[in-house]
Design goal:
single chain, 385 residues, alpha+beta, ten-stranded mixed sheet, three-stranded antiparallel sheet, 14 helices, globular
Amino acid sequence: MASEHLNEEGFQATSAALNNITDETLSNHAADPRSTLHRPADHEHAHSFLSKILPKHAITGLETKFHMGNYVIDRQTGEKHWEAMSIYVRVGMHLLYYGSEQEKALHWKRTLDLLRAQSEKMGKEYDLPESKGHIKPFIDSFQLQASMAEMVQPDPDKYACFNDFFAREIRPDARPIAEPANDHVVSSPADCRLTAFPTIDLATKYWIKGYGFTMERLLGDAQMAKAFDGGTMVIARLAPQDYHRWHAPVSGTVEAIKDIPGAYYTVNPQAINEAGTLDVFCENKRSVMTIRRHPHGTPTAVVAVGAMLVGSIKYVDGVDTLGTQVRRGECLGAFYYGGSTVIVIYPPGEVTLDQDLVHNSIDEKCETLMKVGWRVGVSPVGDGN
């Protein structure tokens, strides 16, 4: 990849492109977001826009190197369909390769400062009352009209700002958990695109290809990492159009919270799957909640990972108070604007993952569309209960 690293001209061009995209988005509240920030990266207008800003050799290399989206599998129908990458994610991918040496490029202070500034910029703007103008175009563009009936507040006009809408709360009855009487079942933590791996080694073999990934770095705690060595990993990626709260995958007691500062790299699968890039999960801002699972008495780690243009990660209703009892399916927190990811880790032998999710993740190398509360797996002692 060293030959693809770009120089000062390239960095300045990419910085200008990202700034231009976010400025254009914020300047017109009524604009269709799929014509600005969320314009599909494989659209001809996206190509022409980037061609005006990026050097020719830069955009050619980017288009050659990366696909412009990802396939996902609908769990209910089994159908595979294409989801185009948004233009801002595509530009964010570009930033992973700047500098004269890869180690310097991926930790380059100016790249980190740029992504942080853009995330803070979007967060601040979307907290303003006038950002309400973005809500209806966002709903229309992503066809979210029907899903609004599932929300505690279904009326788009009642939200104070765009971030208030983005972190909207869903009615509990709209996301019933699978097999509620079976304490051995584990659930999806989010409405998401999910991958599931029986062991962490399989996750790093088939999905997490970036260098520098370790459990100790992800969790920020060497002792905790030992408890999950060889364990099971579930990765739930939330796209911007998804309901953007995350929920408890198990019932138990909140035992620890660790907030880890970090960067704002994209968590698009193209960034996660590319060998030779840095591992964004261990670099990005995140919060690690440890739940002592009931009735098993074993730990479960729930890692909320921020991503490109994510303004903040917030727990709700005091669930981050140590000793709090949480129920499987209960809301734990909300992300404010942007894509994000929730990683759930179980100790070895604790959970047997549902085979369809494992097949999609390993054999198909695809994410599976999931909703909060859907079954992900079961502890062996609970299988068949």
